Amino acid sequence: MAALTSRNSAFGPRAGRIGLYIFLVVSAVFFLLPLLLVVMNSLKPMEEIRQGNLLALPMNPNFDAWVAAWKTACTGLECGGVRPGLWNSIKITIPAVIISTLAGALNGYALAQWKSRHANMIMLLVTVGLFIPYQAMLYPTVKILSNVGLFRTYIGIILVHVVYGLPYTTLLFRNFYVGVPDEISRAARMEGASFLRTFWSVILPISTNILVVVAILQFTGIWNDYLLGLIFAGNDNLPMTVQLTNIVNNSRGAATPNINMAAALITAIPTLIVYFLSGRYFVRGIAAGAVKG
């Protein structure tokens, strides 16, 4: 009887583990199958796609569709592919990520250090701003930027991303800094360091986890943005996501789904690179409590 009980108790955890693995495999297949189909069809010539073999492996795989998506795909009246949008996305995303991350860190530290009910009220207002949808703020933002001459300019689109990202970054940093012992800041002040000096020389160096987490989240959100780029960037600064939409919706000539899929993959490559290069730091930051609170 004891041996039977021991066998049953061992079978329970093993069955649960097997069930968990099955669930993970099914979930991975469910999420990766669309990506696999996009990759497969981006490597097919149009002759294969016209035969209706979207689910079949490419018989003669090549990167012609990738080259066309990069160099010659039409985005309206211009046929330069998504290549012009790459530099636009880079020059928009990098400064917006840096500014919104550092500004959010400073705001979060200030709110964490400010021991007052007013700080809690301001944090509540910041949180409310986080949940207001972009669509509700588009018109007043357009009017404000138009009045100051920044509508559809390079500075304007960066400013929009920074302002719209501040509630999110401030919330994450504030929740992180609440858990930092007050003795660290107090010791710096006793040594004569100012608030900004303490923040820059003492607090930021111990904020690696949250900095990586916020930077990755901001990079992904800004790079993948379409709506704000379409409205505020202007014709000379359209990001890759807008270029991609123009390629997919282009009505000139016959439809080319292989080029559309290749363009979508090219647009997604930078975020994949960022994830693969810093993904372990992101996971380490999450595990270390970078988004606790």
Mean pLDDT score: 86
Number of helices: 13
Q: Assembly state here? A: single chain
Sequence of secondary-structure elements: HHHHHHHHHHHHH
CATH class placement of the largest domain: Mainly Alpha
The secondary-structure class comes to: mainly alpha
Which labels suit this protein?
MetI-like fold, globular
Structure commentary:
Helix 3 packs across helix 13 (257-287) and helix 4 packs parallel to helix 7. It is built from 13 helices and no strands. The two termini are 49 Å apart. It is mainly α and 293 residues long.
Task: Summarize the topology.
Elements: H1 2-42, H2 46-50, H3 64-71, H4 83-113, H5 117-131, H6 134-147, H7 154-178, H8 182-190, H9 195-203, H10 208-223, H11 227-232, H12 240-248, H13 257-287
Helix pairs in contact: 1-13, 3-13, 4-7, 4-10, 4-12, 5-7, 7-10, 8-9, 10-13, 12-13
Summarize the structure.
The chain contains 13 helices and no strands. Helix 3 (64-71) packs across helix 13, helix 4 crosses helix 12 and helix 8 (182-190) packs across helix 9. By secondary structure, it is an all-alpha fold.
